[in-house]
Amino acid sequence: MRATLRLGLLGFGTVGKALVRLVEAESPRLSRQLGVDLRFVAVASRALPRKPTDGLPPDARVTEDLLSVATASDVDVVVELLGGLDPAGPLVVAALGAGKGVVTANKALLAARGTELARIARDQGAALSFEAAVAGGIPILRAIRESFAGDRIDTVSGILNGTCNFVLTGMARTEGGYGGVLAEAQALGYAEADPAADVEGTDAACKLALLARLAFGQEVPLEAVRTEGITRLQPVDFVYAGMLGRTPRQLGIARRLADGRLLLSVRTHLVSNDSMLASVEGPFNAVQVSTARGGDFVFSGRGAGGEPTATAVLADIVEIARRDGGSGVPPFGTEAPAPFAPAGPADSVAPFYLRFVVRDRPGILAELASVLARHDVNVDAVFQAPWSGKSALPFVVTLEPVDEERLGRALVELAALPFHVEAPLALPMTP
Amino acid sequence: MRATLRLGLLGFGTVGKALVRLVEAESPRLSRQLGVDLRFVAVASRALPRKPTDGLPPDARVTEDLLSVATASDVDVVVELLGGLDPAGPLVVAALGAGKGVVTANKALLAARGTELARIARDQGAALSFEAAVAGGIPILRAIRESFAGDRIDTVSGILNGTCNFVLTGMARTEGGYGGVLAEAQALGYAEADPAADVEGTDAACKLALLARLAFGQEVPLEAVRTEGITRLQPVDFVYAGMLGRTPRQLGIARRLADGRLLLSVRTHLVSNDSMLASVEGPFNAVQVSTARGGDFVFSGRGAGGEPTATAVLADIVEIARRDGGSGVPPFGTEAPAPFAPAGPADSVAPFYLRFVVRDRPGILAELASVLARHDVNVDAVFQAPWSGKSALPFVVTLEPVDEERLGRALVELAALPFHVEAPLALPMTP
User: Fold this and answer.
1) Domain boundary among A272, A302, A332
2) Are B219 and B338 in contact (CB under 8 A)?
3) Rounded CA separation B19/A155 (Å)
4) Which of chain B's residues have a Cβ under 8 Å away from the Cβ of A302?
5) What span, in angstroms and rounded, lies between the C-alpha atoms of B281 and A174?
6) Domain range spanning residue B367?
7) Residue A51: active-site member
8) Do B324 and A328 touch (CB under 8 A)?
9) From the CA atom positions of chain B, what is the Rg in Å?
10) What is this structure's pTM?
11) Which of A53, A316, A414, B134 has the fewest Cβ atoms surrounding its Cβ within 10 A?
12) Are residues A298 and A314 both part of a single domain?
């Protein structure tokens, strides 16, 4: 089998440049070992390099007209690396509409319009691949779509955002504050100048929605993911977590209940120090898949960066070449996704960590405890580390497993008490 | 797309029974979500159940004539779960020769005759799939064959045998002896009555040879894997490993040198307690893939057992159904494997742990040290834990990184010294 694929590239940023370098470097091997010949025929970018020779593929035409490349008659596969909803969305629609295969790393677009794009791809008999959209180089989407096709997935969870993991493991290592570690992440290129999508959880929520669609075959909307950022974590939380034999990790979790409803969240959990997730450090990602028959699987690796993302894009391109265009497997694993069936906070039960920062005065613990008792929430233990601060006293109450509807009602009442210096922080504790 | 696949099953042991149950349970979902209809039309086994209804698929014919099922005109895909070289080998050849797809979990057969079988499959345009042969339910072969096609793999390594991992983590946990923990593994079904293939490393060596073929595109012979068992580990080794912040793990490692030659081994390493491999406990497997561009990836999960293996077999069957018979991707990832280029012990450099058990008398350390010095082997540290035994004294010497050719010469001379109660044990130490 020998396949030649003509590529049109939309976007020429970090990943685009890494992809061009990668294809150039690997072409001889791909041709010899796999019988796949790849050639960039066109590159479109709204911000072309000043020197047109800077890393551009040698024989490709270069243009600022994105649509002309998305629909060019000499392009077989369009590689969309622009990101965002617009103009990426209309361009992908145009490319699929013209019968071209599309490879994209655009998680925001797929989370917002994935089902629609998959339908267009199917109607046109065109491939739509997006392994790079979730967890960078970790081949988790292919694993879920194909390798677990014979099992029933109960939970997909994991560390889906390398920036957050870098910040949290940095805070754990250095006992530094959030701002300082974030600045370090920015200096190293692990966080963007505007880190909001990362640290507030939106990026991970997009990825979780895609994972959940693939794993459970439902039309999971992005809005269904309960999303909390990591911005409220303080050095003192790492001290208390350590006392509990735990460490904070931002986890996305999508769980199917026995009745088929889905529970989806992105937030900071305290994970056990001897869990595999605790050993995932720095900008790495890890995805755990729990299945009914095969048990638990963990996949870890670099979740972002130009090169890991480019290798995932290239693997998708190679697959399209090998499959001769049509992949046979629908992009989200199923031809007919079921409607979304959401679960609610009452379905989520976990032990919790509550951190309070209060103006010290007698009777505070009694007041907090009586609110918790009134809501039938059982306290497991109270922790107060030695503390030099005078005006604000942080301390921690751990709870026995409690459903989040009840906990939520208790937290509203707790937060209304008059002695808080800041709002209470509630983090679930995960094995 | 709707595909119906008629299955012929060879072998009706633990995995075969789990597969029949699994197909029965998952059929409605596979049909609805993936458009794949599976049906067992024939089951062949040399030891049929006494009661023919015991777990057999309802409408299948049942026979002891294996060849008749392997070549039956109403069978599309033959599932070979007999294990071993004979009669599995001739049966798989016959099935492929008759143009049938073959799904097998038979690592021994693939390690011995994989290249030949892949060639027959290609010539016949038939699928040959064997995800279940390595690391049970972990979809590592598909990941290497497809997801890393765009990257260059430098090393594939991991915990490939659940029995060994169960025994080693059991010894670490209980400080018990090898025999007792092995008996526990047998009672729990994690080790066979004859555990030789597991504990002596042959099973892991077969898997490593398959991984190396896929990762490096070379014709790796099983004999090229340097193989040592776990049978010589003693409780005292776990004590010393703990002093070094390490724990023993049986690892298979296949590494490509810069010049393309391959270094392959299965043996016990002392891994760092904070490595991800150290967090892999009990009967779990983990495979690490180190790539030139994407960095390091780890995949972990259940490596054996009826259900995880059956789910991997079913995923292969579903893939064949979805791809309409031919997968387009050659079984070993490349159409033209290169000849095997072996590296030698001089190419393998690592820090080492040497454990001696000697009759205590003055001057022993000086004699050992002088042999090491004569061979230019640098001692890093000497450890001697408090020890109550009188006649036999165990102690440990750790070495700075040393190439194994030189170390091997030194070990021959060390072993010839007259004071050993048993032969020295040498274990590499791995980050």
Assistant:
1) A302
2) yes
3) 22
4) 294-297
5) 29
6) 345-430
7) no
8) yes
9) 24
10) 0.86
11) A53
12) no
